[in-house]
Amino acid sequence: MALISNFSFATEIDLVRYVESKKYPDLKQSYFVDLLTLALEVSKSRYGDYKLQPVNIEMAQARTSMMLQREEYIDLTWRMTSQTLENKLQAIYFPILKGLMGYRIFIIPKNKQHLFNKKTSLADLKKIDLGQGHNWADSDILLANNFQVVKGNDVSLIKMLKKGRFSYFPRALHEPWLEISDDEGLTVEKYLMLQYPAPTFFFVNKHNERLQQRLSFGLALLLESGQFEQFFLNHRITSGILSKANVNNRTSFPLRNPLLSDKTKALLTDERLWIKLK
Is the full-model pTM beyond 0.85? Predict the structure, then answer.
C-alpha cells in the first residue's frame, strides 16, 4: 500500500507560477528562478515532475503577496521576511540569498560623495534623508533604527534620488550596479555599509503543504550536498559580489531588525546559511 501511495505522490506534476514583469524586467530575478528550478529538480525523485510558469502581471510586492494569500494567479513569491508576512503566508525557512539583503551599500548622485566619508558616524547618517520602497521591510527596519526615510514606489526611487528627494538609496550588495549601469549621474558610495539580519525566503500559500514540503526538501538537499554554496558563489548575480562591493574596507554599522519571528531568529546560528565577509 505504501508503495502505491509513494508512486502516486511522485507522479503528480507540480505547477509553480510566479510573477514576471514585462514592463519592468529585473535581471536579478534570474537568481531566484534558477535556484527555484534547482530545488525542484533535485526533489524530482520524491515529488515527481514540475512545471514552472511565469505570470505576466504588473504588481508591487505587497499586491503579489496578497494574490498569493488569496490563491489567485500565482503559487510562489520571494521576499525579505517579517513576522507579519509569515503570519499571512507560509515561509520556506531557508535564507535563499544567504542574508545578502541585510548588507546595504548606497546609490548616490556623484556630486553627493562629500556627504559620506570614512569619518561619517552612524549619527551622521541618520540625519541624511534616504529612500526606500513603500511596503518594504527595509523601510520599517530603518525607521525603527531612527533613520530619516522617504518612501516611494519601487520603480520611482531612482528618479526620486536624481530629483533630490533624498540623498542616498541603500541597496543590497548585489543590486546597485545593475540598477545604475545606464546612468552616468549616479554611483555607488565608497566607504560605508549598513548591516542587519534580513533573510529572504520563498513563500507559498499556507494551504499549499505539498509545495512547502517539496521546496524545504529540495533546498535541504542542496545545502547538504554543497550545491547551494556553489550556486551562490557562481551565479552571475552574486558571483564575486563581496570583492566588487569592497566590503572588508567599508565601515559597517550594525542595526537591529525588530521584524524577525522567533523561528527566523533560530536560523541565525547556522553558519552554513549565511555569507561570510572574511
Answer: yes
Q: What is the dihedral of CA 229, 97, 239, 244, to 10 degrees?
A: -130
Other CB atoms closer than 10 Å to residue 250's CB: what's the count? Answer: 19
Q: What is the CATH number of the domain that holds 53?
A: 3.40.190.10
Nearest to 209 by CA among 60, 63, 12: 12
Q: Which of 108, 132, 134 is nearest to 120 (CA)?
A: 108
Strands 186-188 and 103-109: antiparallel
11 pLDDT above the threshold of 80: no
Domain containing 9 equals: 2-99+199-238
pLDDT, residue 180, reads: 93
Residue 99 pLDDT exceeds 60: yes
Q: What is the reported pLDDT for 188?
A: 97
